[in-house]
Design brief:
Layout (H helix, E strand, L loop, with lengths): L4 E2 L2 H6 L7 E2 L5 H4 L2 H4 L25 E5 L2 E4 L1 H4 L12 E2 L17 E5 L5 E4 H5 L4 E8 L22 E10 H7 L9 E6 L9 H4 L2 E5 L7 E6 L2 E2 L9 E3 L12 E7 L6 H4 L24 E6 L3 E2 L2 E10 L5 E7 L7 E2 L1 E2 L10 E9 L2 E11 L26 E5 L1
Parallel strand pairs: 1-2, 6-15, 17-24
Antiparallel strand pairs: 3-4, 4-5, 6-7, 8-9, 9-12, 10-11, 10-15, 12-13, 12-14, 16-18, 18-22, 19-20, 19-23, 21-22, 23-24
């Protein structure tokens, strides 16, 4: 394998979707100084955060809202205006307790079984690395991001906007692996990935196992990732190896992946059959309801957020198209009465990444309701209102995501 080559902002702008055998350094002091890539966090913290659990102790406590030991949200004022989310600010969501660091003691020896192909076999990370290395920038977002805005009190973590981030995943494209194993077997309609969490005894594994199926059409975008933002993938975020499906909600990006099978049907585990289903309020989950697969177009303002003096200000935010590129963003200062075109900041890292945006505005004293509305490359725009549903999934309505700004 060739030695790593440095990646510049120009490289990323010219080769956005997947940058083969390249890296964008995001952890060093030099990279942190680059506003165009990592942005800034302009507001002071108003809350004293709780303590981080041991497995996430390396994260930036002041930039997170700790909802529970398994759920940590990036503060809205910590999202900033950057193209990429630093790993220590990235939200955390676990369906099961995070396994210990021992699973990553020998990363290259981690094994994943591939079935439903012409020549099924187990492969180590070391073997996967010989097949090819590519990097993709993609938004990682929990299905419940925005749940806190649902008035019926949807159960689950009350995420606001911070259960999302844009990061670099490095690994081998799943298509490359499958082709090396003779291709997908006939009659297979889904890619089913199984996590490597240790399951408690005495409980039916199907009721708690993290095992998700996505349509086989996702094969050409999926990647088996072993790096996050140019560092070894932390166990906190699914290391040593994670199934990453750009454009799909986070639950489909299975952590500590141990088993990948191409299957004729979706898995019969609870998390697939009745979990993560878009259903009416008061209705139980069922397999005939839409599954939380592909993300939709979305945006929100990140700064300023509360009170600011009169004068000329820059309104910042982030926008993404989910499974499509985001094409444009508009900002309204009066709750949607009038709209102005915002401009994108920084390089375009591809259709699955988010685009920071900015609007310059002269603000006189008064109260403003600042909202943003994104449109993707297919012409789909954010709706005004949320789609009411039992679990508060898939919220991309622009109205709820606005902020009230007081100008003095």
């Amino acid at each position: 394998m060739r030695a790593k080559e440095p990646t510049t902002t120009l490289d990323l702008a010219q080769n956005p979707p997947m940058v083969s055998r390249r890296r964008l350094l995001v952890g060093s002091a030099g990279a942190l100084a680059s506003v165009s890539l990592l942005g800034f966090s302009p507001l002071a913290r108003s809350q004293t955060p709780a303590t981080l659990p041991d497995y996430a102790a390396w994260k930036s406590l002041s930039d997170l809202i700790v909802h529970s030991a398994n759920t940590m949200e990036t503060r809205r004022d910590a999202i900033g205006s950057g193209v990429l989310t630093p790993s220590d600010k990235l939200f955390v969501r676990n369906n099961l307790p995070s396994p210990g660091e021992a699973i990553a003691t020998d990363r290259d020896a981690w094994t994943v079984n591939i079935e439903g192909v012409k020549n099924p076999r187990a492969l180590t990370i070391a073997e996967l690395k010989t097949m090819g290395v590519e990097t993709v920038a993609a938004v990682l977002q929990c299905s419940g991001n925005g749940r806190a805005f649902f008035p019926h009190g949807a159960s689950g973590t009350q995420w606001s906007v911070g259960a999302a981030g844009c990061v670099l995943w490095t690994g081998v494209p799943l298509r490359t692996v499958v082709d090396a194993l003779g291709g997908v077997a006939d009659g297979m309609n889904y890619i089913t990935s199984t996590g490597g969490e240790e399951l408690p005894e005495g409980i039916d594994p199907k009721t708690i196992r993290v095992e998700r199926s996505v349509p086989v059409a996702a094969l050409d975008r999926a990647i088996l990732a072993w790096e996050l933002n140019d560092d070894p993938l932390p166990v906190t975020h699914g290391g040593p190896l994670r199934m990453v499906v750009p454009g799909y909600y986070g639950v489909n990006n299975v952590k500590y992946v141990r088993h990948i099978a191409f299957t004729p049907n979706q898995t019969d585990t609870k998390i697939q059959v009745s979990g993560y289903r878009l259903r009416d309020i008061g209705v139980k989950g069922a397999s005939d309801q839409p599954s939380m697969w592909e993300m939709n177009v979305k945006s929100w303002v990140t700064s300023p957020l509360e009170q600011t003096p009169q004068g000329r200000h820059m309104i910042y935010g982030v926008a993404f198209g989910g499974s499509r590129a985001v094409a444009s963003v508009e900002v309204s200062l009066d709750g949607g009465g009038n709209w102005q075109q915002a401009r994108f900041l920084g390089p375009d890292l591809g259709p699955f990444a988010w685009r920071p945006f900015v609007l310059a505005a002269n603000l006189a004293p008064g109260d403003y309701r600042v909202v943003s509305r994104a449109t993707d490359s297919d012409g789909n725009s954010q709706p005004e209102n949320r789609t009411e549903n039992e679990r508060g999934y898939g919220h991309n309505g622009w109205k709820d995501h606005g902020v009230t700004l007081k100008v003095t």
